[in-house]
Amino acid sequence: MKLFNQDLPRGSSMSYAGLLERLEILRSTLRWAHSLDRPDIEKLLRQANAVRDEVMQLSHKERFIQALGSEAAPRPEPAPGERRAALLARSFVFEGTFGDNPRLLDALEIAEKAAPTDLPVLVDGESGTGKELMAKVIHANGARADKPYISVNCGAIPESLIESELFGHKRGAFTGAATDRKGKFESAHKGTIFLDEIGELPLQGQVKLLRVLQSHEIQRVGSDETIAVDARIVAATNKNLRQLIELGQFREDLFYRLSVIHVTLPPLRDRKDEIPLLLAYYGDEAAEALKRRPVGMTPRLRAFLLDYAYPGNIRELRNLMYRLACLAGDTADLPHLPEDLRPAAAQAQDAPAASSLPPPPPASLAEAKRAASDEAERACLERGLKDVGGTVAELARRWDMNRSHLQILLKKHGLHSKDFRRH
Ligand SMILES: Nc1ncnc2c1ncn2[C@@H]1O[C@H](COP(=O)(O)OP(=O)(O)OP(=O)(O)O)[C@@H](O)[C@H]1O
Ligand SMILES: [Mg+2]
């Protein structure tokens, strides 16, 4: 039989129209095929998989916003604040999420559309980007808002207990199961179950979860009885699930089931425009919590905080503001930052707050040269330590230097290798 033998035409920008066209070609190939042998089936499967992967990769906007018809006439970008105001006008519950960044608003608008449905939602994003907050937003904006919201951290439960935690157990099912116990799914009946760190769920638990998603029934560990559960699932991860799938650590079918709606939260470094707002908000919150006046900031600390990359995202920013509120007097400065942030912050890390003044001019040319050379040496040591994650022996090897000489230089500059260890 003659199969459509060229590569399927690729949608110019992976648009819906392009994908639909490719699906139609696949359908017509199948419709007109008299018989299919194994290689043909495999070829068609590959083509279907490619289309499916592209559908899954479509950005939220394309999948949910344009699909709802707004793509017909491209509208001008709304002014900042307009989209948030529109959400507010539609009585959207923000649960304390704020910011006007377009990518965050994309996520909130998807949440708004997803909330009234029972479709599973997968939220991903780096640590501290607000995944749990987003799960609460989805719950709060849906019809289940006044029903239970049950949160399970799949990464925090020992592998041997996870099934009993999720699905419950029957008395005597295993040593220590002294009574019948219901699991989180049953507790979330009619409400929402938030499966945090879903990437940590062991494979066996993944199989069971898949079954629940398909049948809406659970079985307690050690019991044959099936119990109907109606729980809306929101899952979250800071892992790359596609990568885990390739490593054989996450089931592909479960991934597609969970990510019917897929929301990715942007890291804070990609929405730096919101840092001033977050600093002000969490500065006030910390002051209130610690029952003190909000602390001021020196210009250099403020400049640092506005530009810092925040690997721990909003949680890190929030914690920093609490720390500053606790440690500083009226005005916080660079030395109030945690030690491991300070080396990158400025050379003057241990100087007293008053040292925001520029350093005094050098007494001579020789003095200026020495200071510049010291500064370069220190910067080079910091950079080197960062690159090797604080392993002095490795740095000595890379630079072909005597290790004890390197130690002396570190001591001279007051640098501690442990401050550069990766956690
Ligand atoms: N857009 C936002 N506006 C205000 N605060 C936010 C926002 N997003 C997150 N936060 C705050 O940041 C902190 C971390 O949020 P959350 O616990 O939801 O992150 P997470 O992605 O689940 O983190 P992890 O991966 O470490 O579990 C919380 O205090 C939350 O209130
Ligand atoms: Mg979380």
Characterization of this structure:
The chain is of the alpha/beta class. The protein has 4 domains: 16-58; 90-266, P-loop containing nucleotide triphosphate hydrolases (Rossmann fold), CATH 3.40.50; 269-346, Orthogonal Bundle (Helicase, Ruva Protein, domain 3); 370-420. It has helices at residues 16-32, 38-57, 60-65, 82-89, 102-114, 131-140, 162-167, 184-187, 203-215, 241-246, 252-258, 275-289, 299-307, 313-327, 342-345, 365-387, 392-398, 403-412; strands at 121-124, 149-153, 192-196, 217-219, 226-228, 232-237, 261-264, 296-297, 331-332. Strands 2-3-6-1-7 form a 5-stranded parallel β-sheet. A hairpin with a 6-residue loop joins strand 4 (217-219) and strand 5. Helix 1 packs antiparallel against helix 2 (38-57), helix 9 packs across helix 11 (252-258) and helix 12 (275-289) crosses helix 14. The protein is globular, with a radius of gyration of 28 Å. The model is unreliable at 1-13, 59-71 and 351-360 (pLDDT under 50). The structure holds adenosine-5'-triphosphate and magnesium ion.
